Amino acid sequence: MNESIHGHQVMEMMAKSKQAYTKQSLKLAIATKFGENARFHTCMGSDLTADDLIEFLTSKGKFVESSEGIKIPEEHLC
Fold this sequence. Notes:
Layout: E1 5-6, H1 7-17, H2 23-34, E2 40-42, E3 45-48, H3 50-59, E4 64-66, E5 69-71
Parallel strand pairs: 1-2
Antiparallel strand pairs: 2-3, 4-5
């Protein structure tokens, strides 16, 4: 089994790319960087799929969806 990846690593990947994603393009970018079968964790959850992680981070306001796509709000960027 692969090692679990912290959700912040996905956020860092997004911040470095400086682009907005659709859910599909974000899932593809995650699969490309971390592997199709990667599992993720956060301080509040574990064994998350990419879909689960996207949903969780959106529900916590870490990702914002708009007509431009999914982005990280400025206040969540390090």
